[in-house]
Automatic annotation (TrEMBL):
TPR repeats lie at residues 369-402. InterPro entries: TPR-like_helical_dom_sf (IPR011990), TPR_rpt (IPR019734). Keywords: TPR repeat. Gene3D superfamilies: Tetratricopeptide repeat domain. The keyword tRNA processing does not apply. The keyword Transit peptide does not apply. This is Tetratricopeptide repeat protein.
Amino acid sequence: MPATEPVIARRYTRSDPRGSYPRITGAPEPAVNRVALFWRPIVDLTPSPHAGLRMRMLHPVARWLAEPKDGRIVWFSRIGVPGLRRQVLRHAGLDPYDCSGPPGLAEDLRTPDWRNLVAVLERFGELDDHLRALVVFHLAQLSFTEYALRLTGDVEPTGEAGRDHYAYQVARAHSRVPGHTDRAVRVFERIASTTPDPRLAVLAAAQGVSHAVRGKGETALAHRFEGLGLAVEMAADSWHGHLARSRFHRALALLRMVERDLGGMRRELRTAWWCNDQLFAAPADEVSTMVAVENRRILLESEIKAASRAASDVPPGTVREWCGELERMDPDCVETRLVLGDGYAAANDLPRAARWYAAAGELGTSDGAVGWFRAGQAFDRLGERERAVQAMGRCLELDTTAVEPRRYLKEAASDGD
C-alpha cells in the first residue's frame, strides 16, 4: 500500500505555465457569496466560521496589530501562496476587492481591521523589528507577498532578537516567490548559524531543510541544515522549543522520504509527534492552542501524504483514522480536502476520495482546479462517466490552460459522435 502505480495523477499540465483563472461576473457581495463564505478572512479580514484553519489565524494577528505589545512573536506556521487572494476574488466574482496591496482597496470596502492594517503600513518605517516581522507575516497570510517584499527590501539578520525574527519572516516571504529560493536559503543558514535564540535557530534550520529539498533538490544542503539544527541546545521543557523541534523533525521526515529511507522517515515523524504532544501537556492561551492545533494538523497531513506517495506498510485502517481526524479538524480548507482525497484513495476508498476531491473543487483557486481534475479521474475509474465529464469541465472553468481535462472532454465528445 499504496499501489506501485498511482491511481490518480496528482496534477494536470498547462498550455501556459502561469495558468489562467477566468473572472466570474454578477456574483453577490461577500456576506452571501458561496465561495467567499470559505475565504472571507482573506477577502477583507472578516472572520468566518466556515473558513479553514489558516484563514482563521488572520484574526488574532489583526488583533495584535490593533493592540501592539513589545516583543510579541508570531508562531503560526502556514502562510499564503502569492496571488492566492486574487484567485479567490476571480472565482468568487469580487473584482472590486482586487488590489496589489492593502492600501489599494477602496475606502468603502475596508473593514476596521483592514483600515488598521493600512494605518500600520503608513508608518512601517517607524515600527520596531518585532512589529515589522508581524506585519510581514500578516501580509504573507493575505498573499500580498510581493507587496511585502517591496515594502521591506532585503533584510539581513544581525544577532539581535527583533532583527533576526524580522529577517526570518522576510526570508519566508522570499521562499514563496519563484526564483527567490537561493536568497531565502542564504538568510535561513545565517540565522540557523548565528542567532542567539535557539528556537529561531531550529525553525530556520527546518526551513532550510524543507526548501533545500523542495525548492532546490539538494540533499547535501539539506543535510547541512540538519547538522545546524541538531547542534542547537535548547531547554528541554520549553513549549516553543518543542514546537520548533516538532517542525524540524517533520522537515527531516521529508528529507528521509526523498532519500527513500522510509524507516528513517517514520522515526523522524515519531519524534515530531512526541514534541507535538508536549504542546498539549500544559495549559495554554487561545492563540498558543491554535498554534498547537495547526502543528498537529500539519503532522496529520504529513502522515497521509507519506502513506499516499511512498511505499509504506501503514494499513489502510490507520490512514482512514488519520483522515477522520483531519476531516474533523479542518474540513473547510481546500488543501485539507485534497489531502483527504489522496488519503482515502490510498486507503482504497475511491468513492470517498472522489467526494473530497470534488469538495476541494467547490472552493475555487488553482487548488480547486486540481481537485476537480482528481475528482474527474476518480469518477472515471468508478465508471461514473457523466460525473467525470462534469468534473473535468469544472476544472477547465477554474483554469482554462488545463491540458488533460481538455483532452478528456474532447475524447468524451468524440465518443458520443
